[in-house]
Amino acid sequence: MANENLNLTLKVWRQNGPNNPGRMETYQVKDISPDSSFLEMMDVLNNNLIETGKDPVAFDHDCREGICGSCSMFINGEAHGPDRGVTTCQLHMRKFKSGDTIHIEPWRAKAFPVIKDLVVDRSSFDRIIQAGGFISVNTSGNTVDANAIPINKEDADKAFDAATCIGCGACVASCKNASAMLFVSAKVSQLALLPQGRVEAEDRVLNMVHQMDEEGFGNCTNTGACEVECPKGISLENIARMNREYASALVKKG
Amino acid sequence: MALSALFLLFFLLQHLTINMMSVFSADLFNETSHFMGTNFLVQFLLQPLLIFAVVFHFVMGFILELKNRSSRDVNYAVFKGAANSSWTSRNMIISGLVILAFIGLHFYDFWLPELDHKYISVLPEDPSRYFGELQHKFADLWRVILYCIAFVLLGLHLDHGFQSAFQSVGFNNKYTPSIKMLGTAYSILIPLGFIFIALFHYFTQSH
């Protein structure tokens, strides 16, 4: 029966703090509606834990509609679970069967240390953005309207596609090397493709890649796992573009 | 990695072309091998470049693997790599290590005797010796089997490596599907060619 409520075994990573050793703990949840989202199922689990006087599972969430990039669970061996093009909050419980065992882990990467349970520190992404993911514009009142600069349709579309990256970190979590190349390349591309972003393009790519390496992310070996698991479908084309931008900037700037 | 890979892709094609000559004509193979073994440009420019590319490729491969392994200090309890990537792309270090072991055997079989002939024993030039040396090596069944296993792993390495090299140098555009198809064909045909040559010489000589 497709509409039958689900009884599930959950194996969840529990860790009290960054310096505490973690372990997988097993919980049972019963009578979960297949129409509920994965995070709603986690809410049910946490209610059960609170009612029995236990510490609820800490996990990141905010908008619960696939926009903010907060939710970050590694579910049954895949970032954001078995569905494609969705974040954890958009994952429906109908993707699972009653009696299933679901493994839930935090993003694993040296650059994403665990804060508590399933919550990881993704401020390494913020530092990469701070290193160059912006354009320097005077906003004191004489700002030129962005729409006054003509941009060809193909570049505008590609820049927009790159800009849909929500910075959730699924690319890092899915990559066997914990590489952040898809994220960084999306942020480089969304600006490099537009005239407003060309002015600082060389410094940007050099600084952002440098910061990415500083943070301890791995290197890209083109397995393509990031592109498959990305909830926004960010393309590997962006990584190739960043490689071109980087090589060109390295030659020009040294 | 990608630049040395592109050079090695070109080298493999050239190596197979010359080896394939041994199937059709012993004289042509001897003549070409003698040219490659004595030509100044090949010996003192292309050969050092090849050695550099091979050493650079595997040293960088090891460094890359170690660095990438260290970027995840706690492993997942469950990791479904097969759900989003190919086995060949995730295991380049395994296929690479087998190829490296094969290169060791290949050097022992052909390169060391060549160095001995030229620079240690300093034997007189013999433009007709190459075909006999090739046949002699492929008389041994175990060597033929080892070579064939290594060529299969070479095929798996190339299956990911070919298109990956293009992606790494920034080549990803409307021609990428064609590059991937070409890479698949290359990764099947080149190892198959080498396997054919090894089996051909094993079965066409008396044991």
Supply database-style keywords.
heterodimer; A: 254 residues; alpha+beta; Ubiquitin-like (UB roll); Fumarate Reductase Iron-sulfur Protein, Chain B, domain 2; 5-stranded mixed beta sheet; B: 207 residues; 8 helices; 79% helix
Structure write-up:
The complex is a heterodimer of chains A (254) and B (207). Chain A is of the alpha+beta class. Chain A has two domains: 6-116, Ubiquitin-like (UB roll); 124-253, Alpha-helical ferredoxin (Fumarate Reductase Iron-sulfur Protein, Chain B, domain 2, Orthogonal Bundle). Helices cover 35% and strands 14% of the residues of chain A. Chain A contains nine helices and seven strands. Chain A has a five-stranded mixed β-sheet. In chain A, strands 6-7 form a two-stranded antiparallel sheet. In chain A, strand 1 (6-14) and strand 2 (23-32) form a beta hairpin. In chain A, helix 2 packs antiparallel against helix 7, helix 3 (153-163) runs antiparallel to helix 5 and helix 7 (201-214) packs across helix 9. The longest helix of chain A is centred in the C-terminal third of the chain and has 17 residues, at 237-253. Chain B is mostly helical and 207 residues long. Chain B has one domain (2-203). Chain B has helices spanning 2-24, 26-38, 40-70, 87-90, 92-120, 130-137, 141-168, 176-203. The mean pLDDT of chain B is 96. The interface between A and B is large, with 40 and 32 residues.
